[in-house]
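Please go through the sequence and fold tokens given here and tell me how the chain folds. Record follows.
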Amino acid sequence: SDYLIANSKNVAEKLSRYNRTEIVYNGVDLKRFYPRNYKREGITYIGALTKEKSVDTLLKAWKDPWIIGNGPERSNLKKLEGKFFGYRHDTEEILNKSKVLVLPSKKEGFGMVLLEAMACGTPVIARDIPGVNEIVKNDYNGFLFKKDSELKGLIEKILENENLRKKFVKNGLKTVKNFTWEKTAEKVLRIYERVID
């Protein structure tokens, strides 16, 4: 093949030894993910319950977070205090009812849920890892953390500081404009045109 299309710099680096690689980020459906006027309550994780997602980091840092998703680690994680909702189709509703979305993963291709949260006007906190740090810019549109021990303090900062929260929401909504399906389609089309020429 002439081109491989990767959904993040992180993935592109892994593929680059095979061929020419173009980065085209996944798109967010802004007709589905947008801010609604709901009461916000949860400190939330959405995703698979696997070891590399490191969901226990959130469960140890915060009392009763909302855990959305399923996976092999579920029974181990349930020993820690949290509200386990299982797999849900209405993630846009959950995000709009969340005060903060936390992504503590130690490995991510891209971290689509971060963009979905930003599109819903939900502040994000994520581990500083490749893929994720292409989306979250620390102290601009969310917080990045390196050590598990930092997480609790960062959640508290967002909950206690209204101006900071507003800044993250505003910059998050700005960030998402670069990650719409329209933008994704345009980029893929340009690559196809290049390959055909």
